[in-house]
Each structure stands twice: as structure tokens, then as C-alpha cells.
Amino acid sequence: MVTLRHGGSAHRGLGEWLVQRASALYLAGFSLWLALRMGRGWPADFTAWKSWLGGGGVRLAFGMFFLSVALHAWVGMRSVFLDYVKPMWLRLVLQMMTAAGLLVLLLWAAEILLIEARP
Amino acid sequence: MIYRKQGIGMSGKNKKRPIHLDLLHIRLPVGGVVSILHRVTGVALVLALPAAIFLLRQSLLSPEGYGRVSAWLRSLPMHIMLFLLILAFTHHFFAGIRHLLLDLDIGISRDGSRRGAWLVLAAVALLMVTSLFLLW
Asked: What is the Cα–Cα distance from A48 to B63, expressed in whole angstroms?
């Protein structure tokens, strides 16, 4: 039986583990939904594309998708850095660049969904 | 990953075990191949994210933007990129599901995890053949 220590960095690792799994489940469901939607025929032109993406449910689903991707990518990239990048300064630089990059992408996606995709 | 303290020590007959693992000399088991590909494809998908968001924005800005995006996506280089991205995604998807099942102790045995890894590769190959037919 594995006993968990409480507090400190061990606790944080458990949180990231959960975030990775929860976001993975959403991403898997979203991808299946999108693939099925594609199978039924993609919106044929600009008008159809825009009116489909303008729907509240679709925009919410895409918003959740981008949030899940950002979280999932953060945990994944972090474990890649932890495993392969040994110099601490380089690891910190890469982690900060990743965090900043993902945050920018998330804000950009939010702007698109809230402004450009608005019907 | 769980480390057991007794297993790591330098005691007994195992003193000559390799201290570092030379990736060019060890032959990774199929589970290891699927696992490292999961990481490689994950990083590739993250790197593709800015382009995907850019294309999404362009496609929503105007009918001309939408036309440009569909023309780009129809070009041969983008078709190849798209194919590689679908390949990366498919692998990441199935290998990820395998990892989630391993969390639930499904397919956790040595033989079971090997079977699962081969199953992942087979599913990826099958879907790639299908998507080749669909793309071209």
C-alpha cells in the first residue's frame, strides 16, 4: 500500500497528477465529439463555419478545450523539463517561457472566442 | 513512479549493473517506445498550438480569411503537416488512454502492458490508413 505524505512538494505533485488526468479526460471527450462532428460533414463555407462556432455551447466547449490544453501542456512540458533538463537555471527559464507562452495562447484563444467568434 | 529503497542499493550480486543507461545501446521494450513517443508527440502538439490558434482566428475574421485558410490547408506541404499532426494526435490519444487504464490497474502486468502497447500501435496504424484515404 502506498502511503501519501501530506504537505510540501508531495502535495503539489498530486495536484498536478490530477489536473493532468482531468484535462486528459476532457480533451479525449472533446476530440471524439469534434471527430464525430467532422464525420457528419464540416461546415461548408464561411457563413456556416461562423454560425456553428458562434453558438454558445460550441464556444463554451472550445473555451474549455483551450483551458484544458493549457493545463495539460503545462504539466506535460514541466515533466519533460524535469526529466531531461538538468541545469536548474535552464529548467527555470524554460518553465517560465512555457508558462508565459501558454498564458498568452490562452488569452489569445479567449479573445478569439469572445470577440471574433461572436455571432 | 514508486521507488523501493531496498531495490536501489549497491548490495549483493548486482554491483555491475549499468549506472547510466546508454540510449543507443539498450533496446527499449515496446511499452517504453509507446511511452517515449507519447512525450515526443505531446511536445509536437504543443508546438503546433500557436499555428492552430492563428488559423482559427484567420478563418473567423472574414470570408477572405476563411478562403485563405482553406487554400493553405489544401496545399501539399500543409497536407503533409496535417497528416503528421493527425499521426501525433492519434498516437498521443491512444497512448494516453493506455496510461489512464494503467492508472486503474488495467493492463498493468508485464504481458498485459505489452499487449496494450502493441494495441496502441495497431490502432494508430489503422487510423492513419483510414485518414490517408480520407485526406486524399
From this structure: 11
Q: Which residue of A has its CA nearest to B53?
A: A109
Hey, is the C-beta of B50 within 8 angstroms of any chain A C-beta? yes
Measure A15 CA to nearest chain B CA, in Å. Answer: 15
Minimal Cα–Cα distance from A103 to chain B, Å? Answer: 12
Domains and CATH numbers, chain B: 38-135 (1.20.1300.10)
**Residue B77: how many CA atoms within 13 Å on its side-chain side?**
1
CA–CA separation, B38 vs A79, rounded Å? Answer: 12
ipTM of model: 0.87
Non-local (6+) Cβ contacts of B45 within 8 A are B85, B88, B89, B92
The list of chain A residues with pLDDT below 50 reads: none
For residue B12, give how far its alpha carbon lies from the nearest alpha carbon of chain A (Å): 26
For the segment B88-105, the average pLDDT, to the nearest whole number, is: 93
Tell me the chain B residues in contact with residue A45 when contact means C-beta distances shorter than 8 Å: 63, 66
**Within 10 Å of residue A7's Cβ, how many Cβ atoms?**
7
pTM for this predicted structure: 0.83
Which residues of chain B are within 8 Å of residue A31 when distances are taken between CB atoms?
Answer: 89, 93
Compute the distance between CA of residue A100 and CA of residue B136 in angstroms, rounded to an integer. 38
